[in-house]
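Meet our chain:
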Amino acid sequence: VPFIWRLFDFEEAETEQSVVLGSRTIARHLPVILVMSMFFIGLIAGFVFLFFTLSPTQNTQIFEVQLNELKNVGVVSGQAIFSLDNGRFTEVFEMLFFHNLGVLLIIILFSLLYGAGAVFVFTWNASIIATFIGMYAKTVSSGASVFALLGGVGTSALSLFPHGSFELLAYLIAALAGGI
């Protein structure tokens, strides 16, 4: 938290000194967005490593809340993805859209109130993503080999990339806006 808070202070001071007219907003803040995205990816990598090094009993205890959240979301989205019923797909899409919109508003609120308060939400999201990656990789590899496990990690991470990259970018920009 102090690192991100200091990063916001630095970016705020630099923004106040720079010329606002004629400059592109995303390009001006790109270094901070990259640092925050690498922080988020590092959190995911740390949680995945923790998921693989702990025993299954410890994983169930430590990641219990994340596993329950994945079960709740996974059942609903899995039913919608494999269903040909457009009404059900629309219902699930709206639920996920408004859930992500709520997360976005929480990030803005936490950033406005505490500066780097969005770090708490980033940590929570990273733990859920890491739990998903860990569960998927263990299921795919079935204990076959380390290479199968790494393949499962890569496959699960790439499955999240198409929509997750836009979601992460929106969260990072919201956190930066609230922090500044």
Q: What stands out?
A: The chain has seven helices and no strands. The CA atoms of residues 37 and 172 lie 7 Å apart. The helical segments are 2-17, 25-53, 56-62, 64-81, 86-114, 118-141, 146-179. The chain has a mean pLDDT of 77.
